[in-house]
């Protein structure tokens, strides 16, 4: 493998090359701490090893008998205290700067979910853009040792976040199910995304390029497989991307009042299922005993559709609510799909987007 | 082990091998395995859990029986008495910390989480939430009414405070060597405790049936029932201790200057009182 | 004082039971030495079990891709490795030392509550059974990390409940053990042994016991809330009901941070005996050692949120917890300096206990410095939940706590077994462990700095080389511990060179005034300390 630009380098031994001012400060802080700690370490253990070599019985050293000295004890309490204060002062400045999320040019809402990220551009150029972003490394590379792993193995996604260079980007983070953490080492950004809460952080990337990070809070079985990719581009390119993305979204948007045929819904539902549900309920619909319930043969899936709509929209136990993630059409499609797949032949076998819209109320 | 010759107590009595600890451990294993199964709806869970709890109780009964016999057999020197005092104090301290965890949760949920959930940023997720203690942002909680301090909790406060007084009277009587009086006031204390628990049970029923206030009523219900529930559980424990002490008083186990069994239970009872005062202020008034 | 003679006379039939043989001796034990031995064996078995889980982790991480285990099982391995090592291996091992040594060091005949002492021990196997058994139930063991963060912990199956109940049991065990230790130390010291004459190991344990009593109930509360959130519809950690997942973290770490000092303070105690013995010079700054230990313990209650810098606390909270955390280096530094001052101008020899003690100081300090670096909020935000943290805590836990336990074994083992261990093998164990330890965990600093997150079943290919080194080191380290069991521990129980009552010429303390191996009953007449 080769280095991954914007991601880790092979045998990288220190922080990423900083791309934001904060990251630069963190980098220097760490260097400073490292130097001070190394100096103390060398001094302290220099003394110890000197003693070990000189004051050993085998070279005939006779033991002294002293066992206290108020003066030195005070000294080595006070001096470390002062050193520690010296370390804390520059750090304080950076902490305060890191927390200042005001005056952002662009605000993006980041939603962590098992196991992908959702992005909604809330404010600034590109407002209204919204998409999901998931791992794009093919599964074969993960499970098949004979497949070569590419340079961006596990740190590549289908839809990267795109932001303009030199603009202050404020992220507001939340999650759908459990806690995740959004991290880009090169920006020195790491912020937990907590279900039901909104937390914020910010960065101002000073160099264009692709920057890579990963989810940094244990979030269940696919924790290692929900990377983050940020594409920092020039203003012009950003404007172009916004236009393109908007067109793409308009093309994809569905009319919630359209009535679909069952086959259309099943086809679309299969894709939705593969993208969102297989991780837990499995492709064969059998789930994982004890952890994730089976859909194949499930009473809820085979019974009346209202309860299933409720579960999918609002979540239940470990199942996250999907109402903020999937469109009406996707939800209708995936429910229809489960009702007609595997051994399931539900009585009420079709759900239309309009019914989902009604159930949301 | 009961038939020791009395003589001067050993410097520090160390009991011989005993089968109770390991049996208690095994019973607890059954209890906990049963509990795990029970909460997950496995059929044998409740049976295992209840058998386990009963086994624990039987073992403890036997175990304390041994200890009482040793004490009555004159094996416990003054030094052992001091050991019991230290250990009871620190046990009560550990209980204080247990409650501190729940009080801390209440404080945090009210003073940190609630305003947080209602701030500007959180309008993104909870547009309609207003920071009122008892409100839940999710809209998934059935409406309920909050529990005020009148009248049951206030009466209960009076009951517990009185029970502290009656217990102290009993203690004075014990020190004066008046066994009958001791037993009477001890009994009164237990009765007050029992009345307290009955009121508490009534209050719970009232909460469930009329206020629609349940364990599932959001963080309000969670903290309300967990705090008062654990307190009630401790009142029950304290009352059981006092009942055992009463039995021992009637058997004539305690002397005016050698009765740590009584004092330990009394300390515990006072601790339970103090926790209640905290609850009364924090849960019902504020 | 003739009371002890009375004792023997009055209860002669007790003494008939006093030496029960076979299984009853262990199951019904009330003797602090037997119970100490039980604790030590239990914890060693747990160390091996937790170690096997670690090796499975390391084997999976040997190269990128999923080769051996599924990611959900990987998370179970990580979680159970952490739980077993913390609650099964390190903590019980120190309690085992306390059982063996505290009565001997303070001249007491036994622990204050002998039966409760046995109960504390016999709660551990049930907890271990619950934990191990949870691997076999549907859904497997809990996989939420040893910290059991909500709301991930509400997603798990029955294995999570078994884990919660196991932790309840272990918590009860720790509380009872601590009450026993406190009572023993406060009430059963030999006449003349004032608190400020008490051996350091007893001091560190006294303070540790207070930490345990203060924080174990809080952990019990936290996991009880998890349990009710899981099954009874409470909303402690659920925002929709007005609760807060971060509240779990606050409560957990209020326990969790003192917990890590619970695992290191007794280690400080052990080392504070070994260094003076082999330097043939009294411990430097005894009083300041006591005060430093107490300061560490007190400070440990106000630093917990340094584990939570990335949850997005207000800036004032971040600063407060950063300052408070950094402050702990000061008393810890005092300890390190005092040890070195004890060595200074001594007449040192380097038998195995001393090697492990010096190794402890050296490597623990590295872990301490990485801790200090993590305490700096902006740096921690960069490194939180990466392998840098994993490196940090294995430096303080393995090369800290575990090395001190090894040192203590070599130091006091002769008193327990009556035989000297084989010095050459002990030295080999030390050097082998020291080297393989560093091979395993040093590269993890680099992985963390480069951004490899922890609790990952698979990783980007750029991280491969350091992971390979770490995995190789881990197997080496594991082999060294098997060697320790087979070549050092077992032989030294069976026989070998007879140990003198005081095998170390520089040693001091009451424990060396009784024969080796220490007889079943010691100090039935309390000795007088001048
Ligand atoms: C034995 C256990 C132990 C010990 C002793 C310590 C000691 C310390 N720890 Fe550690 N820590 C853990 C076990 C331990 N830790 C564990 C298990 C975790 C991870 C938990 C999890 O998430 O799973 C953790 C995580 C952890 C974090 C959170 C990291 C993260 O998740 O982002 C932090 C941050 O502040 C931290 C800091 C410290 C500090 C400052 C000390 C200090 O006490 C160190 C003090 C010592 C020294 C500094 C060296 C000696 C001093 C001198 C020679 C004097 C001179 C020095 C100066 C003047 C600077 N630790
Ligand atoms: C408390 C003490 C403690 C100890 C002693 C150890 C010991 C070891 N730990 Fe531990 N570790 C933790 C506490 C501890 N750990 C904690 C708290 C966590 C965090 C968990 C979490 O994230 O929730 C953790 C996490 C953790 C991780 C990160 C996992 C992840 O994030 O996914 C790793 C990875 O390498 C690791 C490795 C090791 C290794 C190789 C050892 C070795 O030292 C083990 C050595 C022992 C043996 C190997 C056993 C002896 C050998 C045999 C019985 C026979 C077989 C041997 C051979 C064939 C060679 N540990
Ligand atoms: Cu999402 Cu880890
Ligand atoms: Cu900590």
Structure description:
The complex is a heterotrimer of chains A (361), B (286) and C (530). Chain A has ten helices and ten strands. With 361 residues, chain A is of the alpha+beta class. Chain A has a five-stranded mixed β-sheet with strand order 3-2-1-5-8, with no helix packed on it. A three-stranded mixed β-sheet of chain A has the order 4-10-9. The longest helix of chain A has 34 residues, at 21-54. Chain A is elongated and about 95 Å long. The two termini of chain A are 51 Å apart. The model of chain A has no long low-confidence stretch (mean pLDDT 89). In chain B, helix 1 (20-39) runs antiparallel to helix 2 (45-72). Chain B folds into two domains: 1-76, Helix Hairpins, CATH 1.10.287; 78-285, Cytochrome c oxidase, subunit III, four-helix bundle (Four Helix Bundle (Hemerythrin (Met), subunit A)). The N and C termini of chain B lie far apart (53 Å). Chain B contains seven helices and no strands. Chain B is globular, with a radius of gyration of 23 Å. With 286 residues, chain B is mainly alpha-helical. Chain B has helices at 20-39, 45-72, 78-117, 152-175, 179-211, 218-251, 260-285. By secondary structure, chain C is an all-alpha fold. Helix content of chain C is 68%, strand content 0%. Chain C has a single domain, classed as Cytochrome c oxidase-like, subunit I domain (Cytochrome C Oxidase, Chain A, Up-down Bundle), CATH 1.20.210. Chain C has helices spanning 3-10, 12-18, 23-27, 32-60, 71-106, 114-122, 124-133, 158-187, 200-231, 245-262, 265-279, 286-299, 315-327, 329-343, 352-375, 377-383, 387-417, 423-449, 464-494. Chains in contact: A-B, A-C, B-C. The interface between A and C is large, with 107 and 104 residues. The complex binds heme-A (2 copies), dinuclear copper ion and copper (II) ion (CU). Dinuclear copper ion binds next to loops of chain A.
């Amino acid at each position: 493998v080769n280095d991954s630009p914007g991601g880790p380098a092979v045998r990288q031994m220190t922080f990423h090359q900083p791309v934001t001012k904060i990251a630069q400060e963190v980098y220097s802080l760490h260097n400073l701490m490292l130097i001070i700690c190394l100096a103390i370490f060398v001094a302290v253990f220099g003394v110890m090893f000197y003693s070990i070599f000189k004051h050993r019985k085998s070279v005939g050293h006779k033991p002294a008998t002293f066992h206290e000295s108020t003066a030195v004890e005070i000294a080595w309490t006070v001096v470390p205290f002062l050193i520690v204060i010296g370390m804390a002062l520059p750090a304080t400045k950076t902490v305060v700067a890191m927390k200042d999320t005001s005056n952002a040019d662009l605000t993006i809402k980041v939603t962590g979910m098992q196991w992908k990220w959702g992005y909604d551009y809330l404010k600034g150029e590109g407002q209204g853009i919204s998409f999901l972003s998931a791992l794009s490394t093919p599964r074969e590379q993960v499970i098949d040792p004979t497949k070569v792993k590419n340079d961006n193995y596990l740190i590549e996604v289908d839809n990267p976040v795109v932001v303009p260079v030199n603009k202050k980007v404020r992220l507001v983070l939340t999650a759908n199910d459990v806690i995740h953490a959004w991290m880009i080492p090169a920006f020195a950004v790491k912020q937990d995304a907590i279900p039901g809460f909104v937390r914020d952080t910010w960065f101002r990337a000073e160099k264009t390029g692709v920057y890579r990070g990963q989810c940094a809070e244990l979030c269940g079985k696919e924790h290692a497989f929900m990377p983050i990719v940020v594409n920092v581009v020039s203003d012009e390119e950003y404007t172009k991307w916004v236009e393109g993305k908007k067109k793409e979204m308009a093309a994809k948007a569905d009319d919630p009042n359209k009535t679909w045929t069952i086959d259309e819904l099943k086809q679309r539902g299969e894709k939705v299922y593969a993208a969102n549900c297989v991780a837990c309920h499995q492709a064969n619909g059998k789930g994982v005993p004890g952890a994730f319930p089976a859909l194949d043969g499930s009473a809820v899936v085979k019974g009346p559709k209202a309860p299933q709509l409720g579960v999918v929209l609002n979540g239940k136990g470990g199942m996250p609510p999907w109402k903020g993630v999937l469109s009406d059409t996707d939800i209708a499609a995936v429910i229809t799909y489960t009702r007609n797949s595997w051994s399931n032949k539900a009585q009420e076998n079709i759900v239309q987007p309009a019914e989902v819209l009604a159930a949301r109320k | 082990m009961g038939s020791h010759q009395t003589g001067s107590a050993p410097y520090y009595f160390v009991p011989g091998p005993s089968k109770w600890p390991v049996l208690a451990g095994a019973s607890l294993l059954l209890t906990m395995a049963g509990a795990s199964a029970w909460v997950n709806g496995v059929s044998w869970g409740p049976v295992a859990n209840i058998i386990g709890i009963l086994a624990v109780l039987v073992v403890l009964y036997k175990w304390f029986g041994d200890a009482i016999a040793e004490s009555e057999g004159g094996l416990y020197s003054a030094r052992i008495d001091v050991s019991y005092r230290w250990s009871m104090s620190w046990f009560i301290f550990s209980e204080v910390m247990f409650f501190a965890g729940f009080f801390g949760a209440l404080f945090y949920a009210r003073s940190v989480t609630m305003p947080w959930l209602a701030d500007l940023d959180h309008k993104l997720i909870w547009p309609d939430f207003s920071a009122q203690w008892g409100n839940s942002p999710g809209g998934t909680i059935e409406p309920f009414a909050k529990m005020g301090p009148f009248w049951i909790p206030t009466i209960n406060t009076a009951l517990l405070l009185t029970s502290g007084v009656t217990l102290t009277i009993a203690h004075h009587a014990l020190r004066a060597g008046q066994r009958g009086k001791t037993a009477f006031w001890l009994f009164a204390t237990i009765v007050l405790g029992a009345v307290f628990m009955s009121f508490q049970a009534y209050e719970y029923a009232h909460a469930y049936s009329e206020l629609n206030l349940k364990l599932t009523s959001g963080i309000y219900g969670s903290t309300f029932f967990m705090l008062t529930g654990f307190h009630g559980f401790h009142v029950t424990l304290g009352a059981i201790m006092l009942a055992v002490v009463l039995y021992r008083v009637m058997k004539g186990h305690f002397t005016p200057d050698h009765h740590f069994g009584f004092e330990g239970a009394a300390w515990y009872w006072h601790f339970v009182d103090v926790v209640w005062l905290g609850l009364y202020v924090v849960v019902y008034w504020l | 004082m003739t009371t002890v003679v009375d004792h023997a006379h009055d209860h002669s039939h007790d003494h008939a039971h006093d030496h029960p043989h076979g299984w009853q001796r262990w199951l019904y034990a009330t003797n602090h030495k037997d119970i100490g031995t039980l604790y030590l064996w239990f914890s060693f078995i747990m160390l091996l079990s937790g170690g096997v889980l670690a090796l499975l982790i390391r084997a999976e991480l040997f190269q990128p891709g999923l080769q051996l285990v599924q990611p959900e099982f990987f998370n179970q391995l990580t979680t159970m490795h952490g739980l077993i090592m913390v609650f099964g291996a390190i903590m019980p091992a120190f309690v085992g030392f306390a059982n063996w040594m505290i009565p001997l060091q303070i001249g007491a005949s036994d622990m204050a509550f002998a039966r409760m002492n046995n109960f504390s021990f016999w709660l551990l196997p049930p907890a271990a059974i619950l934990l191990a058994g949870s691997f076999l139930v549907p859904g497997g063991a809990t996989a939420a990390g040893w910290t059991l963060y909500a709301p991930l912990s509400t997603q798990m199956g029955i294995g999570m409940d078994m884990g919660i109940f196991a932790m309840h049991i272990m918590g009860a065990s720790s509380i009872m053990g601590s009450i026993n230790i406190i009572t023993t130390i406060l009430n059963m010291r030999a006449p003349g042994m004032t608190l400020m004459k008490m051996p350091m190991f007893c001091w560190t344990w006294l303070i540790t016991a207070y930490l345990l009593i203060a924080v174990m109930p809080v952990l019990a509360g936290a996991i009880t809330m998890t349990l009710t959130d899981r099954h009874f519809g409470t909303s402690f950690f659920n925002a929709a009901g007005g609760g807060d997942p971060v509240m779990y973290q606050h409560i957990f770490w209020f326990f969790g941070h003192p917990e890590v000092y619970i695992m290191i303070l007794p280690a400080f105690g052990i080392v504070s005996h070994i260094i003076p013995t082999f330097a043939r010079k009294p411990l430097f700054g005894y009083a300041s050692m006591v005060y430093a230990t107490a300061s560490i313990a007190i400070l440990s209650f106000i630093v917990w949120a340094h584990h939570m810098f990335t949850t997005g606390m207000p800036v004032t909270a971040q600063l407060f917890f950063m300052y408070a955390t950094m402050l702990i280096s000061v008393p810890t530094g005092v300890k390190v300096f005092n040890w070195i001052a004890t060595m200074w101008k001594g007449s040192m020899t380097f038998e195995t206990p001393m090697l492990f003690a010096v190794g402890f100081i050296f490597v623990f300090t590295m872990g301490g410095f990485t801790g200090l670096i993590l305490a700096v909020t902006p740096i921690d935000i960069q490194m939180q939940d990466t392998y840098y943290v994993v490196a940090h805590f294995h430096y303080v836990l393995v090369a800290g706590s575990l090395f001190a336990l090894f040192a203590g074994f070599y130091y006091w083992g002769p008193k327990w077994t009556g035989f000297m261990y084989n010095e050459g093998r002990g030295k080999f164990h030390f050097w082998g462990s020291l080297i393989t330890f560093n091979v395993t965990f040093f590269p993890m600093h680099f992985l963390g700095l480069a951004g490899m997150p922890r609790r990952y079943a698979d990783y980007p290919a750029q991280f491969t080389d350091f992971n390979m080194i770490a995995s190789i080191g881990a197997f080496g380290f594991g082999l060294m511990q098997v060697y320790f069991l087979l070549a050092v521990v077992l032989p030294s129980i069976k026989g070998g060179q007879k140990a003198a009552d005081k095998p170390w010429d520089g040693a001091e303390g009451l424990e060396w005034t009784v024969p080796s191996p220490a007889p079943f009953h010691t100090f039935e007449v309390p000795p007088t300390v001048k």
